[in-house]
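[agent] plan:
  1. take the single chain provided in the ticket
  2. run structure prediction with default settings
  3. attach structure tokens to the ticket
  4. add a short note for the reviewer (M.T.)
[agent] executing step 1
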Amino acid sequence: MGDNKRQTFGFLNNKKQITVIKKEEKSPEKKLFISEQLKEAEFNQDLTEKMKERLIDLIFKYKNAFATDKEPLGSTIGHKVDIILNVEKSYPPLLRRPAYPASPRTREAFGLHIKELMDLGALRKVGNNEQVEVTTPVIITWHNRK
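[agent] step 2 finished; step 3 output follows
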């Protein structure tokens, strides 16, 4: 457990004092997290109860970094990630093919998939005057019937 509260009690007829460690109750938010998010979790059998509690405390502390039902991609803020894009030749054969128009059914599927990725926060539309380091047309779609 994290911060245990120590309380010292003295006995009236004895000059010795003993220290009692009072076990903290889990917060309702933590209980809900354990029951909902860790219900299917399996912990190593070699972990002691204290080790398991410390691990659960750590997972709870950084719970926003993990994917959940409500946040499928997880969410971390303030951590820099370097992504190196390989733009040198030779590209794989599938990337060397010329662009071609997609069928209406395929365009509809692309639209649904793009909307889902935008809802998840994995993709976003870049404004005309917005300065960004890298922009690539991942999927070419219809715009103004062109």
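[agent] step 4 note for reviewer: Residues 104-120 form the longest helix (17 residues).
[agent] ticket updated
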